[in-house]
Amino acid sequence: MEMNAPSTRNPIDDNRTGLIGKPIDRVDGRLKVTGKAPYAYEVQEAPGKPAYGFIVEATIAKGTVADIDASAAEKAPGVLLVMTHRNAPKQAPWGPIDAKDRFARSSPQLASDKVRYYGEAVAYVVAESFEDARSAAALVRIRYEAAPGEYDMVAAQAKAEKPKDDEMQKADSRIGDFETAFAGAPVQIDATYTTPHHIHAQMEPHATLAWWTGDSVTVHCASQLLESAQNAVANTLQLSPSKVRIVSRYIGGGFGGKLPVYGDVMLSAMAARQLKRPVKTALTRQQMFHFTTHRSQTIQRLRLGATRDGRLTAIGHDSLSHSARFDDFYETASTQTRSLYAALNRLTTHRSVKLDLPISDSTRAPGEAVGMLALEQAMDELAEKLGLDPIELRRRNEPTTDPEKNIPFSTRQLLRCMDEGAERFGWKRRSATPGSLREGRWQIGLGMAAATRSNLLMDAKCAVALDRQGVLTARMSMTDIGTGSYTVFTQIAAEMLGLPVDRVRIELGDSDFPETPGSGGSWGAASAGSALFDACTNLRGQLARRLGAKPDHVVFADGRATAGAHSESIGVLAGTIGLRAEGQIKKGDMAKKFSQQAYGAHFAEVAVDMDTGEIRLRRMLGVFAAGRILNMKTATSQATGAMIWGVGSALFEDAVVDTRFGAFVNHDLAEYHVPSHADIPAIEAVFLEEVDDKTNPLKIKGVGELGICGAGAAVANAVYNATGVRIRDYPLTLDKVLGLQARQG
Questions:
Q1: How many CB atoms lie within 10 A of CB 559?
Q2: Within 10 A of 168 (CB to CB), how many other CB atoms are there?
Q3: pLDDT tens digits, 551-603
Q4: Whether 334 contacts 317, CB under 8 Å
Q5: Which residues pair with 465 in a beta bridge?
Q6: Rounded to an integer, what distance in angstroms lies between the CA atom of residue 469 and that of residue 480?
Q7: CA distances from 2 to 369, 524, 715 (A)
Q8: Is 515 a residue of the active site?
Q9: Residues 725-739: pLDDT tens digits?
Q10: Dihedral sign for Cα atoms in the order 370, 375, 379, 381
Q11: For 474, phi and psi rounded to 5 degrees?
């Protein structure tokens, strides 16, 4: 099926079993908590005892390997292979091979003596045990010839360039005459905000197990996008994709850091072919900080021009980020500004500077997550300058259609999210005068911010099979990165066929299964779920014909198909050999006809110690409108988790680059601070009722990344309300509070 028209009423709307929306427990939960869900490094399917690989990383950020001595490592106990640029197999050069899928890129390892960034692989040791490999890796002696590099985005910003436009994204947008409108606006905000490098910090490190069967390779790894991974391995190793199988059944967190595949995959596959035995490799936590991707820092300039009654006449958002010297990624931090608020004159730009740093890429709601840290603080600043309540300012600038696309919204409940949140949070008790509310030595403040995240539908396929026992099995190459994919797909299939959840088997995470876009961009449930819906619809049609009735006249419930007085078990209807059906979803043109976004509003209360500048979050509320909710428990889990990300972005997270050497100095979880339990005392996520028939047949929207968008800005606005100190440089650490207080007072 193809989304070229609004979806009509269907079995998901009827929800006869009551499963859609129900907060059922994760169907894979017991496997995970009992340790029986095998992650990539734990897979026991390999044909033979695996060897273990350990990566030796470059200790310079730019230059060449002048000499490498692996003799001591090769003689170490248990060592089977030391691979360097001198003996590594030939591979394809770096770069994407498909303009529509930048993650299907060749990623050669040890391909030359060049060092492009700190932590790049310069050697790879394989041994009989992990301990042997790690010990031997320390024996590899490398002499470098270092070259001057650029590691400081601020210092290099004059070299920034406009990124290339593509079919998904234009770097810049312009509507009207922004410069004239801003210059003539009676009330202006012109402020610059900065955000630092962010690290994914998933619970599961990147890991791979690879083995060969003839000229074909099987790779178990932590990958969000299996088809992209399959093509990346195939192109790097110069194989046909049909010779590469990628398996990723369970993933311990993705967050964008497992969209591409990394050197652990390529090196394991190359070593396994050479040694003719399985090879597994796991990155250490410290290695992940350089060897995998991170979020670029940004410098963002917001210019808002408004009338004295708070109507925006001009809105401008300029964003600067960086990419690795050899890559083209940039942080799309200005994109949400194109649709969130009304203004006749608009300008958004993106610029990127090439640096000799590790690769930056998609990280936790790329674009909006950091873009709204700036935009929603700027709106708060404008509200204060106008003497308006921050919610009222947003109300006065609510657009009736998408301001830049000039098309209607599919649904838009932003105002209702704000109003509902204000009522639940007690927003009326907020003092408009910053620094006026105290409890002892604590200054108390409330802040709010809007939330929005683009909604996407991607092409996907699914295959289902019904056996004579009435058990339905669905297969897709879709992945579950901890968000609950197994569970919501079980609910969809069970509802469509009228089955209890224990008679549904969802099989995911194998590139041999029907193709899906995988998990990323908050499109997973909508895309793969819609393909599953279509496959089940086609299966319902087959069952109806066997019952001798029209599909629309058949009720599926309690494992039976019923049409009038005629009723039969669907297992009996499936027959001895069972029934099979396929389904697919195609994007269609609904996304071109309607602006599709999910929305929300964040509210935060903080306390700031007036002597030390310590900031403590007291409570936080997010109210969201994200289409139909398939499972209230998993959706709430995603939303609250994303809100905690937002708190981390506001108060803690800061990957610090030593600009002399091009390395992250706080490259572990002891010094890269993320929120702990004590930092999040009370947090709540609420979903409004919403059904969006313009998005997909399930009428859902993406949930995963919405909760981070705007969350950190609500915290920053609360800090200002508490102290009168406006911090535009994230994270908001106590030294910045005290420093600005000292300058102001």
A1: 17
A2: 11
A3: 999 999 999 999 999 999 999 999 999 999 999 999 999 999 999 999 999 99
A4: yes
A5: 473, 580
A6: 27
A7: 30, 17, 41
A8: no
A9: 999 999 999 999 999
A10: positive
A11: -120, 140
Tell me phi and psi for residue 395, to 5 degrees: -60, -40
* Residue 705, token pair as written in the block: 């990344």
Q: Which residue has the tokens 């908590």?
A: 33
CA 713, CA 645: separation in Å to the nearest integer?
12
Beta carbons within 8 Å of 187's beta carbon, 6+ residues apart: 305, 306, 307, 308, 382, 385, 386
478 C-beta neighbours (distance < 10 Å), count: 34
This prediction's pTM: 0.97
Residue for token pair 């070593």: 271
Could you tell me which residues come within 8 angstroms of residue 103 by beta carbon, excluding any fewer than 6 positions away?
Answer: 225, 228, 229, 232, 259, 260
What is the C-alpha end-to-end distance of the chain, expressed in Å?
Answer: 64
Q: What CA–CA distance (Å, rounded) separates 121 from 206? A: 15
CA dihedral 518, 523, 526, 531 (to 10 degrees): -30
| Contacts for 432-439: CB closer than 8 Å, 24+ residues apart | 432/389, 434/384, 434/720, 434/721, 434/722, 434/723, 434/724, 435/722, 435/723, 435/724, 437/722, 438/610, 439/607
Burial class (CB in 10 A: 0-12, 13-18, 19+), 13: middle
- Residues 263 and 293: their CA atoms lie apart, in Å, by 12
HEC profile of 473-534: EEECCCCCCCCCHHHHHHHHHHHHHCCCHHHEEEECCECCCCCCCCCCCCCHHHHHHHHHHH
- Structure-block tokens of residue 588: 């269609």
Q: Which two tokens stand for residue 75?
A: 């003689």
| Other beta carbons within 10 Å of 529 | 28
CA–centroid distance for 586 within its chain: 22
CA dist., res. 38 & res. 252, Å (int): 10
- Fill in the amino acid letter for 429: R
Question: Which residue carries 């109300």 as its tokens?
Answer: 395
Kindly give the pairing relationship between strand 460-466 and strand 63-69: unpaired
Question: Helix and strand tally (H, E) in the chain?
Answer: 19, 31
Task: State both tokens at 744.
Answer: 């102001």
* Cβ–Cβ under 8 Å, residues 273 and 217: yes
Q: Which of 57, 495, 515, 705 is catalytic?
A: 705
Residue that is written with structure tokens 């910053």 in the block: 434
AA identity, residue 584: Q
Residue with tokens 């399985």: 278
pLDDT in tens, 244-297: 999 999 999 999 999 999 999 999 999 999 999 999 999 999 999 999 999 999
Instruction: Compute the distance between CA of residue 342 and CA of residue 339 in angstroms, rounded to an integer.
Output: 8
* DSSP H or E segment with residue 374: helix 368-386
User: DSSP readout, 654-687?
Assistant: -B-EETTTTEES--STTTS----GGG-S-EEEEE
Q: Can you tell me the mean pLDDT for 124-136?
A: 98
